[in-house]
Design a protein that fits this description.
The chain is mainly β. The protein has two domains: about 900 residues, TonB-dependent receptor, beta-barrel domain (Maltoporin, Chain A), CATH 2.40.170; about 60 residues, no CATH class. Helix content is about 5%, strand content about 55%. The protein is built from six helices and 52 strands. It has a 22-stranded antiparallel β-barrel. A five-stranded mixed sheet has the order 1-6-7-4-5. It has a five-stranded mixed sheet with strand order 12-16-18-23-24, with no helix packed on it. Strand 14 and strand 15 form a beta hairpin. Helix 5 crosses helix 6. It starts with a helix and ends with a strand. Belongs to the TonB-dependent receptor family. This is TonB-dependent receptor. It is found in: Cell outer membrane. Keywords: Cell outer membrane, Membrane, Receptor, Signal, TonB box.
Length: about 1000
C-alpha cells in the first residue's frame, strides 16, 4: 500500500518553511519599526492600529486578539492595499483552527475548529453576505475565491458566540473589513501589476488549452480626505487573469454498494481474499481520467464615500462589486462497469475495497468512452450599503442597512456544464488496479481501427443560483459609570435563495451516429500517461494510455447537423427544477460589560440574543411520466409539465453568552467563554418538493426531498484560553474548546414509489426472456430477445442493430409491469453529539534581528464520525480535521520574506458520492508557499511569490484507502510583480 506525500513530508517541509526565511540578505532591523502598543484594554472594542510592514502587521493582529472580548483572531493588512495573500482564504488558513477547501488551486471555503463551511458565517463590514456557487448548488458556504484582497484592511475571526454577533456561525463568524478613508486621513494611492505563470497550464492536451501560461494581474487603490477630513473617498479595483490546468483520475460516478459479504454481484469463487462475514464491500461504477483546461477572470471593485457633517456623526455609503468568470474545457477517457461476471482481489475489511477488479466482457464490444466538455460560469456579487454612526463620550448609536446579491449562472451558449460523449466499441476484459495511490486501467482487445470513434450520448445543463439579502441593523453602546457599558441592538433580515437547473440529456450511449459520419482528422490521438507524471502508476506498463481528443464546438456542430436535432445539443431555455427559499428573521440583543476593580483585574460581558425565523420554501419539480429502457443498464425517466409545491417552517431561539477574562499578570491573560449559537440548514435540505434523478437502473431509482421544518443545529460552546504576551510582538497561547451540538441534520433515506412509474424489469417480456431465452441476468441478452421476438409489442420500439450485432431501441414500462421503487434521500434532526479540541499558538520575534516565527497546531475530535462498515443512514461532521501552520519571516528596511507551510490532516469532505450516500475522505495535504518582497525605495517595491512550491498532489478516497475517488495533480504557480505608492 502507499502513504500520501503530505504525511511523509510534514516535518521536513515545516523545517524548510522556517529556514526559507533566511534566504534574504541579513541586515540589522531598524529600531524605528511602526509601533504597536501592547497595553491591554477591556473596552470590548477591537482597536484599529495603523501599521506598515509585515512584522508590525503581525503585532497588530496580536493586539486584536488580546483586546477583544471572547476568543478572537485576525489578520491586519501590512499597509492599505497590501494584504498578506492574494486570496483571503489562503490568509485565513494561517489562523489556528482554520482550514480551507481548495478549488482550482485556490482557497475557496473555510472550516473552523472542525465545523464545515456551511456553518461558518461571513460578514462584510459587519453585514451578512449572500452565497452563490454552482459547484455547491444550495449550500450556504461563502466562496472566498470571488473576492480579491487589495481593498481588505483586516479580517476578524470570532470563535466564541456573542449576543451582538449575527447568527449562523457555529465554527466562527468571519468579518471581512474594507478600507475606510476617514480612518486613514490624507491621500493614499498605489498601483500594482503582476505576471502570473501557472505551470499546470503546460501539461494539457492541445484541444483544451486556453491562452498562455503567463497572465496579467492589475490592482489599484485611491483614498483621500477633504474639507479638514470631513469628507473622504476611496476607490479600489483589481483585474486578474489565470490560465491553469488540472488532471484527475476519478471514480466519478461513485462506488456502488456497500453490499454485505456474501451478497451482491461478487461470488466467492471468483474472488481472492473475498470480504468476510460481517464485512461490507463496494464496487466502482466507472473509472475516468480527465484533463481540464481552465481560464479564470476575476474583477473586483469598491467605492466608498464618507461624510462627517458633525464631529459626532459619520455617514458612509459604499458599493462593492465582484465578478468571477471560469471557462472550463475537458477531455476524458473512461470505462463503465455493469457488474457482470468478474475476477477480483480484495483488501481487508471491515469495509473492503478491491485491490484489483476485472470485469469479463465476452465479445469485446463494450465502449471505450472519450468525452469532451466546454462550459463556462459567471458569479457576480453586488452590495450597496449605508451606515450612520453617532458617537459622544458616553453613547454611540449606529444604523446600518444594505442590499446585497450573489448570482451564478452560465456564461456560455453551451451551458454551465456539459459533456459530449464519444466511444470506440472495442473494449474487452477490463481491469483496474487500485493497490496504489493512482488507479491503473487496463483494457484488452481495444481496436480503434476496427471500431472507430463515434458520438454517443450527451448532456447539456444550465445551472442558476441567486442569493439576496436585505438587512437593517440598529446598534447602541451606552457607557455606564466609569467601567461598564451596555450594548443593545435590533435587526431585521430577509434572505432569499433561488437555485434552478435544466438538463438536456440524450441517452444514446450505444451510439447516436455512425463512425463513418466523421472525418478522421476530427479526432487527435493522445497518450494518457504524460498527464499524470506526478504519480508512479502513470508509468505502469499495464496502463491503457491511448485516447483521442477533439474540438468540442466543431464536433457538437457536426453532430447537431448529422442528427437533424440541433435542439438536443444545446441547453434548454427553461428550468426543470426551480427551488426558492425565503427566510425572514428578526432579532434583538442586550450585552452588558464591566471591569472589576479586584486584586486581579477582570472584565465580564454577559448578553442574550433573541431570534425568530420564518421559512417559506417553494420548489418547481418535474412530474415523472414514464421509464424507458434504452441500453443495458440505462433507464431514463420521461417528464411532463413541472409543478410548484410550497412548504413552511418556523423556529425561534434564546442565545445567551458570557465572556470573562482576567489579567493575572500585566503580560498574561486567562479567558473563559460560554455562548450558544445556531447554524441554519443548507437550502437543499429545506427544499419544498421531491425531485427524482433522471437516470434509473434496473434495481431502481433515486431522488431527493427537502424538509423545511428542519431546525438549525444548535451549539452550546465552552472556551478556555491562556495567553502570554511576553514581548511587544510575541506571544504564546493555549485554547481549549467544547461544543455540544444538537439538532444535527443528517441524511435519512426512505423507499417510495412516486408517480407510480412502471418499469420493464420483472415484467412479462423480461420474465419470458429470462426463462425462454435462457438469458439469466444478462441484460444485453434480454434486450435482444425482446426486440427480436416482440418488436411490435406495446412500448417496444426497435432500432437498427449496432456494430456488434446487438439490437438497439427502447422498451417503455407498461401498466401491467411492476412499479419502480426509488430511494429518496431526505434530512431529519436526530443527532446530538459533542466536539472538543485544543489550539496551541506561538508567535515569536527574534529581537531586532528581523526574523520571526509563527506556528500553531489545532486538534479536534468528535463522535460525529462516519462508520465505514455501516450500511444505511449516517450522521457525520464534514470538515473535522487536525491542522497546523508554520510561517517563517524575515524583514528589514528593504527585504520582506515569508515562507508559509500549511498542513491539514485527513478529513471527511462529503457524505455523498456519485453513487449515493457514501463517504469522501480528503487525505492529508501540506502546501508550501513562499513570498519575497524588495522595497526599492519608499514608493516602489517588487514582489515574488511561489504557490505550492513542492508540487503537491491531492487524493480523495471512499470507505477504504484503496477506493480512490479523486486523484488530482496540478502544479506550482509563480508570480512576479511591482507596486508603486503615490
Amino acid at each position: 500500500m502507499y502513504h500520501p506525500k503530505a504525511k511523509q513530508k510534514l516535518m521536513s517541509l515545516a523545517v524548510a518553511a522556517a529556514c526559507a526565511a533566511f534566504i534574504a540578505p541579513v541586515h540589522a532591523q531598524e529600531s524605528d519599526q511602526a509601533g504597536v502598543s501592547p497595553a491591554p484594554s477591556n473596552s470590548g472594542e477591537v482597536q484599529t492600529v495603523v501599521v506598515s510592514g509585515l512584522r508590525a502587521s503581525l503585532g497588530s493582529s496580536m493586539n486584536l486578539k488580546r483586546n477583544a472580548d471572547g476568543v478572537v483572531d485576525g489578520i491586519v493588512a501590512a499597509d492599505i492595499g497590501k494584504f498578506p495573500d492574494t486570496n483571503l482564504a489562503e490568509s485565513l488558513q494561517r489562523i489556528s483552527g482554520v482550514s480551507i477547501d481548495r478549488s482550482i488551486g485556490e482557497g475557496s471555503k473555510v472550516t473552523v475548529r472542525g465545523v464545515g463551511p456551511d456553518f461558518n458565517l461571513v460578514l462584510l463590514n459587519g453585514r451578512q453576505m449572500p452565497t452563490s456557487n454552482l459547484g455547491d448548488l444550495n449550500g450556504r458556504a461563502f466562496d472566498f475565491a470571488n473576492v480579491a484582497s487589495e481593498a481588505i484592511s483586516q479580517i476578524q475571526v470570532y470563535k466564541t458566540g456573542r449576543a451582538e454577533s449575527p447568527t449562523g456561525g457555529i465554527g466562527a463568524t468571519v468579518n471581512v473589513m474594507t478600507a475606510r478613508p476617514l480612518e486613514r486621513p490624507g491621500m493614499v494611492a498605489s498601483f500594482g501589476a503582476k505576471a502570473v505563470h501557472d505551470t499546470s497550464h503546460n501539461n494539457l492536451p492541445g484541444d483544451i488549452k486556453q491562452g498562455s501560461a503567463t497572465t496579467p494581474e492589475f490592482s489599484g487603490i485611491y483614498s483621500n480626505t477633504f474639507d479638514n477630513n470631513r469628507f473622504g473617498v476611496s476607490l479600489s479595483a483589481s483585474y486578474q487573469e489565470r490560465n491553469l490546468g488540472f488532471n484527475q483520475a476519478a471514480v466519478s460516478n461513485g462506488w456502488r454498494g456497500p453490499w454485505k459479504a456474501g451478497e451482491g454481484p461478487i461470488t466467492q469463487s471468483s474472488a481472492t481474499n473475498p470480504p468476510k462475514a460481517g464485512e461490507v464491500y463496494s464496487l466502482p461504477q466507472n473509472l475516468n481520467y480527465n484533463m481540464n483546461g481552465v481560464q479564470r477572470e476575476r474583477t473586483n471593485g469598491q467605492l466608498t464615500l464618507q461624510w462627517a457633517p458633525l464631529r459626532e456623526l459619520t455617514t458612509t455609503l459604499d458599493y462593492t462589486y465582484s465578478e468571477n468568470k471560469i471557462h472550463t474545457r475537458r477531455q476524458d477517457l473512461s470505462a463503465w462497469f455493469n457488474f457482470g461476471p468478474s475476477v477480483s482481489t480484495w483488501g481487508n475489511g471491515p469495509a473492503a475495497g478491491p485491490l484489483q477488479y476485472t470485469e469479463l466482457i465476452p465479445g469485446g464490444n463494450a465502449d471505450i468512452a472519450m468525452g469532451g466538455a466546454d462550459f463556462a460560469t459567471r458569479t457576480q456579487n453586488k452590495s450597496l450599503g449605508f451606515n450612520a454612526a453617532w458617537k459622544t463620550d458616553d453613547l454611540k448609536l449606529e444604523l446600518d442597512v444594505h442590499k446585497s446579491s450573489a448570482t451564478s449562472g452560465a456564461d456560455s451558449p453551451f451551458g454551465s456544464s456539459n459533456v459530449l460523449g464519444t466511444a470506440s466499441f472495442s473494449r474487452g476484459d477490463t481491469t483496474v488496479d487500485f493497490s496504489n495511490a493512482f488507479p491503473v486501467l487496463s483494457i484488452k482487445g481495444a481496436d480503434f481501427t476496427k471500431a472507430p470513434q463515434q458520438v454517443t450520448g450527451s448532456v447539456f445543463q444550465n445551472g442558476y443560483m441567486k442569493g439576496e439579502i436585505e438587512q437593517a441593523q440598529f446598534k447602541g453602546n451606552l457607557k455606564l459609570l466609569e467601567a461598564s457599558s451596555l450594548k443593545f441592538g435590533l435587526s431585521a433580515n430577509e434572505v432569499k435563495n433561488r437555485s434552478a437547473i435544466s438538463t438536456q440529456q440524450r441517452d444514446t450511449w450505444g451510439g447516436a451516429t455512425k463512425p463513418s459520419d466523421y472525418p478522421a482528422s476530427m479526432f487527435h490521438q493522445e497518450s494518457l500517461s504524460k498527464y499524470f507524471d506526478q504519480f508512479g502508476g502513470s508509468k505502469n506498463p499495464n496502463l491503457f494510455t491511448q485516447f483521442y481528443t477533439f474540438n468540442f464546438a466543431e464536433l457538437r456542430a457536426l453532430t447537431s447537423k448529422l442528427t437533424g436535432l440541433p435542439e438536443l445539443y444545446l441547453p434548454k431555455n427553461t428550468f426543470d427544477t426551480d427551488q426558492r427559499t425565503q427566510e425572514k428573521s428578526k432579532s434583538a440583543y442586550l450585552q452588558f460589560g464591566t471591569d472589576w476593580n479586584t486584586a486581579i483585574p477582570m472584565h465580564t460581558n454577559i448578553g442574550v440574543r433573541y431570534e425568530t425565523t420564518d421559512v417559506v420554501s417553494t420548489a418547481l419539480v418535474p412530474a415523472a411520466t414514464g421509464i424507458s429502457w434504452v441500453s443495458a443498464n440505462e433507464f431514463p425517466l420521461s417528464f411532463g409539465a413541472p409543478t410548484f409545491t410550497t412548504l413552511t417552517g418556523k423556529y425561534k431561539h434564546w442565545l445567551p453568552s458570557v465572556d470573562w477574562d482576567a489579567d493575572i499578570r500585566s503580560d498574561m491573560k486567562l479567558r473563559a467563554s460560554y455562548g450558544e449559537t445556531i447554524g441554519r440548514p443548507r437550502y437543499d435540505q429545506i427544499q419544498g418538493g421531491t425531485t427524482l434523478d433522471r437516470l434509473a437502473r434496473d434495481f431502481g431509482g433515486t431522488g431527493s426531498q427537502g424538509n423545511p421544518q428542519l431546525k438549525p443545529v444548535k451549539s452550546k460552546n465552552l472556551d478556555l484560553s491562556w495567553e502570554w504576551y511576553y514581548a511587544q510582538q510575541s506571544f504564546a497561547s493555549l485554547g481549549l474548546f467544547y461544543k455540544n451540538l444538537s439538532n444535527y441534520a443528517g441524511q435519512s433515506k426512505f423507499t417510495d414509489t412516486p408517480f407510480n412509474l412502471h418499469t420493464p424489469v420483472g415484467g412479462a417480456l423480461w420474465n419470458e426472456a429470462v426463462s425462454k431465452g435462457n438469458c439469466g441476468t444478462d441484460r444485453v441478452c434480454i434486450r435482444n430477445y425482446i426486440f427480436r421476438n416482440h418488436a411490435n409489442a406495446p412500448g417496444v420500439t426497435r432500432g437498427a442493430d449496432d456494430a456488434s450485432g446487438n439490437a438497439t431501441g427502447t422498451i417503455v414500462g407498461q401498466p401491467s409491469d411492476p412499479v419502480m421503487s426509488f430511494e429518496i434521500n431526505s434530512f431529519s434532526n436526530q443527532k446530538k453529539e459533542r466536539l472538543k479540541g485544543a489550539e496551541l499558538n506561538v508567535q515569536h520575534m527574534f529581537g531586532d534581528s528581523g526574523f520571526g516565527l509563527s506556528a500553531n497546531y489545532t486538534w479536534v475530535d468528535s463522535g460525529l464520525k462516519y462508520d465505514n462498515a455501516k450500511v444505511g443512514e449516517q450522521f457525520a461532521l464534514v470538515g473535522l480535521s487536525n491542522s497546523a501552520n508554520l510561517v517563517g519571516i524575515y524583514e528589514d528596511k528593504n527585504w520582506t520574506v515569508r515562507a508559509a507551510y500549511n498542513w491539514r490532516d485527513k478529513f471527511l469532505s462529503s457524505t455523498f458520492d456519485g453513487a449515493g450516500p457514501n463517504p469522501n475522505y480528503t487525505e492529508a495535504y501540506g502546501q508550501l508557499d513562499l513570498s519575497v518582497g524588495y522595497a526599492y525605495n519608499d514608493k516602489l517595491s517588487f514582489q515574488f511569490e511561489a504557490i505550492n512550491v513542492t508540487n503537491e498532489t491531492q487524493r480523495v478516497h471512499g470507505r477504504a484507502e484503496s477506493m480512490a475517488l479523486f486523484v488530482t495533480q496540478a502544479g506550482p504557480r509563480y508570480m512576479l510583480g511591482a507596486r508603486y505608492k503615490f
